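FORM 7B: Structural annotation worksheet

SECTION A. Query
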Amino acid sequence: MMAAIPQDLLDRIRALEREVRELRGRSQMRPAMDRILNGNVVIGEGGSLEVRAPDGTTLTLIGRVPPDYPGGIPQQSFLVSRNDGSVAIAVWSANPDRTPIQPLQIFDRKGSVILADDVLSEGLARPYIPYTLAMTNHSTESTEWSSCYESYGIAQHPRIAAYIGIVTAGQGGQVRLLVNDQVVATGGNYANLRGHWAVPGYAYSTEIKLEIQARRTGAATIVYPRPYYVMGVESAPHYLAVEPLSAQPEPQPR
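SECTION B. Predicted structure
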């Protein structure tokens, strides 16, 4: 004859069986592995996130991207490439030893920078934007400096590049460029003026005044300045150099 089992004990056993079944069912219900809900993903200690195309081409790198800073300090960057591996967008320095501040850059398919900020100053590095010039006098016969072209513009770049030719009747004559009423460059006697110079008192998106002056010297009887171009340019060109993502060292797992 079986011993009598208290009713409350049987109830407890049934309750335990229900809980085991529920736990077993829950263990088979895994959350979706392609979603992140109500939380953050942290990649630290020099790690990086890499997205690759089916053929293995790197499309995106976020985190540590070579080259490192001097002393092996990781450069934390952001790069996006096209399907062919050519860089499209980057917050990254190709030469961190010379330019530790990373420029924002947009590239064409050949690797040329078509848009970038100027990290050595402020404002734009690329594209170059030309200034328009209004002619006040097409020539001068004076031996004193005379205004021939004048304009006002909005400064977008920290430097200004110009190519100003000179045509004279007789050998002699000079041209010079003024920015904000300050002489930034003067051409030699009977010589074209070509180069790039800092904008005096530069501040991004402020108004600047441009002026081209000329004067007669030597045997010249009349001087005709010829502005071929005057445009804003970046502080220095070297930090815009870039290599395609395929040329960068393979990120190593950490």
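SECTION C. Observations
The CA atoms of residues 152 and 209 lie 4 Å apart. The helical segments are 7-27.

SECTION D. Sign-off
Analyst initials: ____
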